[in-house]
Amino acid sequence: MSTMETVYAVSDPKPTVEAAVRQLANRLDESVRGIQQVFEASGDQLWNAESASHTVTPMIVTENRTAGRASSEDTMVTYFVASAILMVTFQKKLD
Predict the structure, then answer these.
(1) Is the pLDDT of residue 58 over 70?
(2) DSSP string, 17-81
């Protein structure tokens, strides 16, 4: 018998795509490791993990930054948020 779990993960806003994807990958690893431990404790084994969806979304925000000694200005800054959905399948161990 197989069991399928859906794993969702989202990064925090990061200044680069690379940083957002790196954090997303770490969060996915932690989530899959966690559910794998639960299923292995009940006699199941990881069978398959595949991406159902993934994206990197730019977020443009206005930040107030210091421009000189006594002045500041609003600056447009782009951050990136990475997200993914994994479909993870477990099945009973066949001994």
Answers:
(1) yes
(2) HHHHHHHHHHHHHHHHHHHHHHHHHTTEEEEEEEEEEEEEEEEEEEEEEE-SSS-EEEEEEEEEE
